[in-house]
């Protein structure tokens, strides 16, 4: 099955929208995971946090596969 969708680039830019996807899980699996998180039956492990100003460093470490677990960007302090 071949799926298609259209995107309005002006709206994407104006509303600062993002498109995310994953080649590893289905939408149903993602929904099940979010429901488990909502029910607090599982929790995400964040092994490292960065201030928003450290986003570039975090992305560089992700590109290098140098982070174990998950990283989170924190706003304010």
On the 0 to 100 scale, the average pLDDT is 85
Lateral strand order in the biggest sheet: 1-2
- Spatial separation of the terminal alpha carbons: 47 Å
* Number of discrete domains: 1
Explain how this protein is built.
The chain has 77 residues and is of the alpha+beta class. It has one domain. A two-stranded parallel sheet has the order 1-2. Strand 1, helix 3 and strand 2 form a beta-alpha-beta unit. The termini are far apart. The relative contact order is 0.12. The mean pLDDT is 85.
Give a brief outline of the structure.
The protein is built from 3 helices and 2 strands.
Topology of helices and strands:
Blueprint: H1 9-14, H2 27-38, E1 46-51, H3 55-63, E2 70-74
Parallel strand pairs: 1-2
Task: Name a few traits of the molecule.
3 helices, 77 residues, two-stranded parallel ribbon, 14% strand, alpha+beta
């Amino acid at each position: 099955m071949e799926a298609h969708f259209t995107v309005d680039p002006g709206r994407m830019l104006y509303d600062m929208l993002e498109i995310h996807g994953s080649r590893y899980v289905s939408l149903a699996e993602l929904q099940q995971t979010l429901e488990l998180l909502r029910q607090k039956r599982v929790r995400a492990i964040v092994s490292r946090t960065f201030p928003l100003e450290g986003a570039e460093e975090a992305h560089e470490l992700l590109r290098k596969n140098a982070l174990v677990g998950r990283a989170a960007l924190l706003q304010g302090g």
